[in-house]
Amino acid sequence: MRSALPVASLARVGYGNAQQEAERTDLLKELCGHLGKAAVVKPTIRCDYGYNISIGARTFINYDCVLLDCNTITIGEEVQIAPGVQIYTATHPLDAAARRTGAEYALPVRIEDGVWLGGGSIVCPGVTIGCNTVVGAGSVVTKDLPPNVLAVGNPARIIRSL
């Protein structure tokens, strides 16, 4: 199991100049299971482990995102993730007695190529978002979304094809 050192180190590295950006990229490569070519991850990123996160080539993750990776989070190529997006894999039983035991489980999340997640959106455990789909700002995605649609709201609903 990898240590928390890359996450802690990322918090200390500045950003803005080429040397700092290169250092951040090196730390992200150490932290993540996969970091694709020309992927950009802006500070801060918060995660549980890091090694369960795969980020595709030319993907852009904007400021202040949370990726709770108790299970795999697979982010495709050329994905745009706006500021404040949260992607969760961890979940708990709905039954109160079971939840009080501390039971927890995790379901994988998959964000396919070309997706755009609007600012402040939340992706819940077990969700797959299909290629080129756009999720409106502030939306809560609780169920799979097919490719090439625009979905908005809480819960996110498809409003049209793209």
Descriptive labels:
single chain; 19 strands; 7-stranded mixed sheet; 5-stranded parallel sheet; 3 helices; alpha/beta; 162 residues
Helix and strand topology:
Blueprint: H1 5-12, H2 18-31, E1 34-35, E2 40-41, E3 45-47, E4 53-55, E5 60-61, E6 65-68, E7 73-75, E8 80-81, E9 86-88, E10 90-91, H3 96-100, E11 105-106, E12 109-111, E13 116-117, E14 122-123, E15 128-129, E16 134-135, E17 140-141, E18 149-152, E19 157-161
Parallel strand pairs: 1-4, 2-5, 3-6, 4-7, 5-8, 6-9, 7-12, 8-13, 9-14, 12-15, 13-16, 14-17, 16-18
Antiparallel strand pairs: 10-11, 18-19
Helix pairs in contact: 1-2
Brief characterization of the structure:
The chain is an alpha/beta fold. It is built from three helices and 19 strands. The strands form four sheets. Strands 2-5-8-13-16-18-19 form a seven-stranded mixed sheet, with no helix packed on it. Strands 1-4-7-12-15 form a five-stranded parallel sheet, with no helix packed on it. The chain has a five-stranded parallel sheet with strand order 3-6-9-14-17, with no helix packed on it.
In helices, the fraction of residues equals 10-25%
Give me the Rg, rounded: 16 Å
How many runs of DSSP E, i.e. beta strands?
Answer: 19
Mean pLDDT across the residues is: 91
Q: Helix/strand/pairing class, anyone?
A: alpha/beta
Number of helices: 3
In spatial order, strands of the major sheet run 2-5-8-13-16-18-19
Strand content: 25-35%
* Largest sheet geometry: 7 strands, mixed
Topology as a string of helices (H) and strands (E): HHEEEEEEEEEEHEEEEEEEEE
Overall outline: globular
Terminal-residue CA separation: 42 Å
